[in-house]
Q: What sequence folds into this?
């Protein structure tokens, strides 16, 4: 069964080559939708054999939907540039076992890495995400950040996805700061309002869950640090939302 690989990029010259190589292990084509990169992303993608299309960034979900129209095959493997399929997932897809199953989408477990260190505690594993689906019956949401797959019959699996997301803590903070801004804007556009204490309650709840219920407490300083990161950005999402509503009233 033929599979289309789909990746959205912006200044991903460090990652895109390995991502495309990873996809071509099981895909018959790879589609790259690039948001007008200023580095060598486009050149590397073309050298690796991908079909490249340019589109100014529309938001995470809409950008992927833009690329979906260029995918020739029904089964879609939709990775980020910093993601790779783990060996168990390669084996599952290569076996074509999914063709004999009643599911149209598959949730994978995200293995997150900070540099070479795997973060499998404080709520960072299993970080389920859907990257493999059939576009005939499943599709992508239009969410601005952390889009999801909307499917008729999705399967949670024990298969893994490697996510080389951050080189250091500065990188995490920069990415999460951008994501919380997008999340707040999305909530604002939907007209959602929260109480002034919402940032605190969400932040403390996230910290408590990640540290005590999601193995943070068993991982020393790292466990507390990553639980705190989760809590801080839960706090910031709602703090930014409140700020947007205040600015609207002043306008």
A:
């Amino acid at each position: 069964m033929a599979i289309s690989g789909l990746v959205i990029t912006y200044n991903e010259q460090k990652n895109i080559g390995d991502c495309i190589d990873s996809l071509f292990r099981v895909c018959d084509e790879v589609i790259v939708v690039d948001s007008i990169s200023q580095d060598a992303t486009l050149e590397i993608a073309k050298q690796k054999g991908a079909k490249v299309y340019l589109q100014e960034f529309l938001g995470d979900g809409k950008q992927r939907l833009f690329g979906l129209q260029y995918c020739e095959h029904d089964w879609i493997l939709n990775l980020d540039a910093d993601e790779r399929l783990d060996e168990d997932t390669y084996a599952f897809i290569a076996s074509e076992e999914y063709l004999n199953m009643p599911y149209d989408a598959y949730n994978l477990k995200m293995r997150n890495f900070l540099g070479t260190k795997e973060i499998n505690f404080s709520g960072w594993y299993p970080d389920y995400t859907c990257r493999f689906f059939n576009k005939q019956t499943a599709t992508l949401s239009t969410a601005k950040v952390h889009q999801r797959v909307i499917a008729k019959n999705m399967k949670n699996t024990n298969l893994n996805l490697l996510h080389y997301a951050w080189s250091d803590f500065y990188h995490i903070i920069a990415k999460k700061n951008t994501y919380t801004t997008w999340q707040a804007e999305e909530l604002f556009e939907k007209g959602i309002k929260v109480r002034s204490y919402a940032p605190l309650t969400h932040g403390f709840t996230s910290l408590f869950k990640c540290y005590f219920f999601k193995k943070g407490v068993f991982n020393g300083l790292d466990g507390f640090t990553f639980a705190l990161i989760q809590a801080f950005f839960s706090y910031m999402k709602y703090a930014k939302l409140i700020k947007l509503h205040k600015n609207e009233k002043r306008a």
